[in-house]
Amino acid sequence: MNQSFPLLSAHGVMKSYYRGRRPSDPAAGRRSAPDTHVIARAPRRGIEVPVLLGVDFDVAPGEFVSVMGTSGSGKSTLLHLLGTIDRPDAGEIFLENRRIDNLPPRERDRLRNGVFGFIFQFYHLLPELDATENVLAPLMIRHSAFSYWRARRQLRLTAEQLLDRVGLNHRLRHKPGELSGGELQRAAIARALVGQPRVLLADEPTGNLDAATGQDIIELLGNLNREDGLTIIMVTHDAAIAARADRVVKLAAGRVDPLGGRSSRVAG
Amino acid sequence: MYKLLLSLRYLRTRWIALASIISVTLGVATLIVVNSVMSGFRTEMMDRVKGVLADVIIKGGGLSGFPDCTFHMRRIEQTVGDKIEAMTPVVETPGLLTFEVKGRSIPQPVLVRGIDMGTYAKVGKFNQYIHEAELRANPSFEVSGKLKRSSEWWRGIKDEEPSDELGESMPDAPSGETAPSPVKLGSPLATEQSGDASSGSAATNSTGDKYHRDDPFKDGPLAETTPVASRDRGVIVPWLMATYRLDGEDYDVIRPGQDVLLTLPAASVGTTFKVEGRHAQFTTVGRFRSGMSEYDSAHCYVDIRDLQELRGMRDHVTAIEIKLKNYADAPEVIRRLTAIFPPGFFMVRTWEDEQKPLLTAVQMEQGILNVLLFMIIAVAGFGILAIFFMIVVEKTRDIGILKSLGASDAGVMQIFLSYGLSLGIVGSGLGMLIGLAIVVWLDRIERLLSWLCGHDVFDRDLYYFDKIPTVISWFDIGWIVAGAMAIAVVASVLPARRAATLRPVQALRYE
Known about the structure:
The complex is a heterodimer. By secondary structure, chain A is α/β, with parallel strands linked by helices. Chain A has 9 helices and 11 strands. In chain A, strands 3, 6, 7, 8, 9, 10 and 11 form a 7-stranded mixed beta sheet that branches. The longest helix of chain A has 18 residues, at 211-228. By secondary structure, chain B is α+β, with helices and mostly antiparallel strands. Chain B has 2 domains: 2-47 and 358-509, no CATH class; 54-354, no CATH class. In chain B, 50% of the residues lie in helices and 16% in strands. Chain B has helices spanning 2-13, 15-52, 69-80, 117-123, 133-137, 145-154, 190-196, 222-225, 239-242, 293-296, 304-311, 330-340, 351-354, 356-394, 396-404, 409-440, 442-453, 460-463, 474-500, 504-509, and strands spanning 56-60, 84-101, 104-115, 234-238, 243-246, 249-252, 259-265, 277-288, 299-303, 319-324, 346-350. Classes of the chains: A alpha/beta, B alpha+beta. The interface between A and B is large, with 38 and 33 residues.
C-alpha cells in the first residue's frame, strides 16, 4: 500500500466561492441571484468566500482515505477539485505525473468518465432511467451510439453483474423512485464502478442513510477497496464512518490539519 | 447514445411539452388544408380560363379586324409550325343581345365571338362548355329539326306547338313566378296555368289568341335592316343570361329554339366616322357554360362567316387563336411571332397575359396567407422556448449528474436539441396527417359544418363547383413540415445552450 508514487495529489490548491449580485442588478434590496455561480462564464462579482486556502493532499494507489471536517470546511470542494468537476483558483492537481486541472474540457470529460467514479450523498440517479440504464449511463457516454449499439449485450451484462455484486440483482428494472435509500446508493456505486475507474470519490455516501444501512454501504466500500484494490477518497463528517478508512485527513480553516488523524486500521 | 435515450425518454414522460406543439400541429394542418384548397381553386379556375381562351392569341385591327387571315395563318405555320397543335380564326366584337321575357324585350350587352366551329373546338375546351348534351355531341350552328320548328313557332310562322323535347329537362318556374317559357298545351295544367303564366303579359297575338305569339321583330323598323334575314342562323348564348337560379334550381330565360336579336357594330366607319349598328335575328341553338362567371354572363358564340357577313368584314378577322403542343414553349413562340406580327398593330399574348390581373391577385393572396399562417407556427416556437426553459431548469440537477459522469457540454446541448427536433417531428407529422385527412374528406366535413351552422358553408351556387377543388402538392407539404421542424429546433437552441453552460458542481447542488 505504501508506494512512493502517489496516484492523485493536490498541491497548494485554493478555491473561493462568490456570493453576491449579478452585474446587471441594481444596488440594494435584491436577494443574491443563485445563477451567478451556476452559469459558467458569468462575470463574478460580490462577496468572496474563500473555502480552500492552500491544500496539499496525496493519495496512494489502493488507499482508502477519509476526509473529515466541519460543515463548510471545503471537504466536498476538495473532492470536486480532485475529480475535475471543478477547477481550482490556484494550485495544481496531478494524476500520477500528469497535471489534470488545466486540461481542455474534452480531456477532463474523458477523465471523469474513465478514471474517476463519483457517488454522492443524495445518490443522484437519473429518474427517467431504470437501475440498469443508470448504471450503463457512463458507458453510454463513453461510446458513440453505433459502437454502443454493437456492444450493447456485453455492456448490459457487465452492468447486471455489477448490480449483482452490490446486491441489487432483484432490482434491475426498477426506477429510482421505486428503490430505497440503501438500494439507491448501491446502484450509484455500481454506476461509479462500471467504467472501471481508478479512483472512487465518495461525497458523504452515508449522509442520507440510517445507521444500519450506512454500515452496509461502508462495508461494501471496504470490500471493494480490499478485494479490487480500488482507491477510495471518502468525505464524511461522521467520525465513526471515517474511522473505517485506512487514513483520515482533517480539513480545518481551509487547510489540511497537520495534526491529522490516524485510523485504527493503520498500524504504523 | 445517452443523448438519444434521454431525449426519447423525455418525449415519452413529459406530456406538458406536447401542449407546446399543439400549435405546431394546428399550424401545419391549417397550412396544408389552406394551400390545398387555394391551389385547387386556382388550378380549376386557370383550367377553365385556359379552356375558354387559347394558349396564344394574336389580336389586331380593333373592331375592323385585319385581312388575309389565311395568309397570316400560313406565316404562323412557317415560323412556329412545329410547336402548334391547332389554330383558328376568330372575330370578336361587343354587341347587344335582345331577348323576350314575358312580352318585354330585354337588351343585354354581350361579347359576340364569331368562331369556326370545326377548328375552334381543337384550340380550347369549347365543346365541353356547351350545356346541351345533344349539341355537345354534334356541335354546329345549324338550325334544323326541332330547333327550326321551335324557332318558327316563336316567330308565329307555324301553328304547331313546340314539343317539350328541347333543351335539358329543366323545371318550369313554380307557378306564380315569372314563367317565360311557353306554356305546354294539352297538358292537364294548361287550363289552370293559362290564367297565370302568360296572362299579365302583353304576349297575346294580334288575333287575340293567347298561345301564339307574333314575331316580335316582324313589324317595325328593324325588319328591313337585316340584309340576310332569310337563313336561320344559330347562336350559343351565355348561360348566366339564359337562366336564373332560385334556391338551387335553374330556370330558363332563353331556351334553345328561341329567337333573339343581335345588335352589332359595323366593321367600317365609313366617311362619317360613326359606327353604325347592324341588327340580325338569330336562333338559340345552345348555351355556353364554362364555370367562369365572367365568361358565362357575356360570351355569345356565332358562326364566324355570319358575323363577317353581317358586319361587312369580308374576310377580316380580329384574332387568330393558337393551341400549343407544349405550353412551356409559349415564351419562345411569343417571341418569334412578335417578330413577324409587329406590335402596334398586332398584339401577341398568352391567356395568362390576358388574365394577368386576376392571376396575380390570386397568387398574392395565397402568398400572404402562407406567411400569416406560418406565424402560427412561429408563435408555437415561443411556446416551445418557454417550456424548454422550464424543463432545463427542472433538469438542472440531472445535467450536473451527466457532466459528473463525463458528458460534454456539447453532448448535453444535443440532448435538448434532439428533444426539440423530436417534438417537431411529432408535431408536424401529426399536423400533416390531420391536414391530409381534412383535405381528403373535405366535402364530408363541409356538409357536417353546414348542417351544424344551419346554412351553406360552401355556396355551390356562388362557386360553380360541385365539390370543393383541392390539389395536394407534396412539394408544398414538404416545405411546410420542414419549416415547422426547423422552428422547433431553433426554439430549443437557447434552452439547450443554457443546459450546456451549467456548471456541474452548482447544478448538482440545485434544489
